[in-house]
């Protein structure tokens, strides 16, 4: 993408996030910047279709006495902030005023600052602290006896009513199951594994899998599909000796101290793997983006963070790099027919191109249709009582595209988005992750 202002063909850039300074948390300075950027957005309105943040802003302006941003009460700014889940699409696909434009609009990172100020003031619900504590919730719900109780309770109307009443988790939202038999428990032999890989291009040919909270506790089968596909391609897979949440849920909450704690736990372990010659992949795009973009912008001078960034790959990006150098197994056992999948926001903004489509298109007698629209899930946004209806409205065009395609398979690069789309279609658990489809094509 290039900026669209006259005479400029410069690619957008991101500035480091100066989150450790007192000025970052100065509420008056924040409100001044929000007013400046909101006024630019009000005059443009190109992003109105992306999420609920922009319609909320424009409604506030249109209902104000002045019909301008100066007529909106600053106490109402938070209504816009709460609808932003940092998908980054406005920055990467719509906004003509991103840096290096002189107006210097970075809407997502301004929303991040506003969320951080809100969190710093203590203006955050206990529910949100809980839902973003994915390590703690996963470990608790992963206790064998607790797992059964939690999974059964969340499938009953009574259990969902209690969750809605106590936690304000919408009783209509789709919630994932938990597994006591986690990925790391299933594959202890991969923890600290020693192996040699065959280098190709920038890849070393051996990968350390960042399992992710979701891929460890909720859908370990997805990571098993990835392991099977990579091993089938002669790429040894290892698991880190220890792992914490990447920090993306806490980032979206504005809890930057918790993000820092996750960094302190993960980066030294991952840096050691990089030094040992391992590349790093993760099956959840948000986790890849956290290490490739957000942490490097939060810690621009941290050499370890930058080293991990350089070694982090989306799994389909990695496979296509191998294919470019003749190292991908293209002998497939069966075709996939017609595939339609949603390219998740946090994969799209990595600027790697449509690598998922490109890999799946290598399968004979297979056609792939990509949907480039947000699903509106965002990990926790879609399950919250006050936002569930908005999330369902956002996903509706995606679900309609899937329905119209009448494909043999559908899903998303993001497993949570895929499940949300299936929920909107009333086809619960019929989604298939592209990595699952690739394993199916190999006949593994």
From TrEMBL:
Annotated ranges, domain Cysteine-rich: 207-292, 339-415
One Pfam family cited in the UniProt record for this chain: CCG
Keyword tags: 4Fe-4S, Iron, Iron-sulfur, Metal-binding, Repeat
KW Iron-sulfur (keyword) present: yes
Signal peptide residues on this chain, from the entry's feature table: none
Keyword field contains 4Fe-4S: yes
InterPro entries per UniProt: Cys_rich_dom
Protein name: Fe-S oxidoreductase
């Amino acid at each position: 993408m290039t900026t669209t202002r006259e005479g400029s063909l410069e690619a957008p850039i991101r500035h480091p996030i100066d989150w450790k300074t007192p000025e970052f948390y100065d509420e008056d300075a924040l409100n001044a910047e929000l007013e400046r950027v909101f006024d630019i957005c009000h005059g443009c309105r190109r992003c109105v279709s992306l999420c609920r943040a922009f319609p909320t802003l424009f409604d506030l302006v249109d209902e104000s006495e002045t019909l301008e941003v100066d007529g909106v009460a600053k106490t109402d700014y938070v209504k816009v902030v709460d609808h932003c889940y940092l998908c980054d699409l406005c920055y990467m696909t719509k906004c003509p005023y991103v840096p290096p434009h002189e107006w210097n609009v970075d809407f997502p990172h301004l929303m991040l600052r506003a969320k951080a100020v809100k969190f710093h003031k203590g203006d955050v619900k206990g529910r949100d602290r809980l839902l973003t504590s994915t390590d703690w919730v996963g470990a608790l719900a992963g206790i064998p006896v607790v797992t059964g109780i939690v999974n059964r309770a969340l499938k009953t109307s009574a259990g969902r009513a209690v969750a809605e009443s106590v936690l304000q988790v919408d009783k209509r939202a789709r919630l994932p199951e938990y597994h006591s038999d986690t990925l790391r428990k299933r594959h202890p032999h991969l923890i600290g594994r020693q192996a040699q890989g065959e280098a190709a291009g920038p890849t070393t040919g051996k990968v350390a899998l960042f399992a992710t909270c979701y891929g460890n506790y909720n859908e370990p089968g997805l990571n098993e599909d990835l392991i099977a596909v990579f091993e089938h391609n002669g790429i040894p897979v290892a698991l880190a000796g220890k792992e914490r949440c990447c920090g993306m849920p806490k980032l979206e909450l504005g809890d930057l101290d918790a993000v820092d704690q996750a960094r302190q736990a993960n980066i030294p372990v991952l840096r050691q793997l990089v030094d040992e010659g391992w590349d790093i992949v993760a099956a959840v795009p948000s986790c890849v983006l956290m290490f490739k973009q957000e942490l490097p912008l939060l810690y621009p001078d941290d050499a370890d963070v930058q080293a991990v960034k350089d070694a982090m790959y989306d799994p389909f990006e990695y496979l296509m790099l191998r294919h470019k150098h003749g190292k991908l197994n293209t002998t497939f056992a069966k075709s996939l027919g017609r595939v339609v999948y949603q390219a998740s926001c946090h994969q799209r903004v990595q600027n790697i191109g449509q690598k998922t489509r490109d890999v799946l298109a290598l399968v004979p007698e297979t056609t792939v249709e990509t949907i480039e629209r947000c699903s509106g899930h965002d990990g926790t946004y879609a399950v919250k009582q006050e936002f569930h209806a908005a999330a369902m409205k956002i996903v509706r065009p995606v679900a309609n595209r899937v329905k119209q395609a009448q494909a043999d398979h559908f899903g998303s690069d993001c497993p949570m988005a895929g499940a949300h789309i299936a929920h909107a279609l009333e086809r619960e658990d019929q989604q298939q992750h592209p990595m699952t489809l690739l394993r199916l094509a190999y006949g593994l």
